[in-house]
Amino acid sequence: MSIMEGRRVLLVEDESLVAMLAEDMLLDLGFEVVVAMRLEQALRHLQAGEFDLAILDVNLGESRSYPVADVLFERCIPFLFATGYGTAGVEQAYRTVPVMQKPYRKEEMEAQLQHILTCEGIAQKSDTGARLFACGCTPLSKASGPTQIRAD
Questions:
Q1: For a tag on the chain, would you pick the N or C end, based on fewer CB atoms within 10 A?
Q2: ω before 146 within 30° of 0 (cis)?
Q3: What's the confidence (pLDDT) of residue 27?
């Protein structure tokens, strides 16, 4: 059984054809896929259910997916951004999050998702807003300084 088999992924992508292509790739890899095409829809899905990971298109029409990223940080859910602009298309505060170059390619998607599922350099957010690298983040303390994270 693959590490991806049966995992639930939130795919946030505003272009319907691109979303269908990415969904097909994710299904082929064994994921259970929930697609959100708008920011508000993605936030509702996060509120209503549990996810093992997420793929976020950075640009969602007039909005950006950063509010979704912030919720994922808070819940310690691994994710990556997808953009045609590479890391240059991601705001500085989110630059430690893995970025998958669009158009989607199944081999790259599989490698990137394998990477974040095996906890190799997953970005997390501290109380100060700084992004930290951690795995399966378990807060150690909530002192006045940044949250300390233990890699499980």
A1: N
A2: no
A3: 97
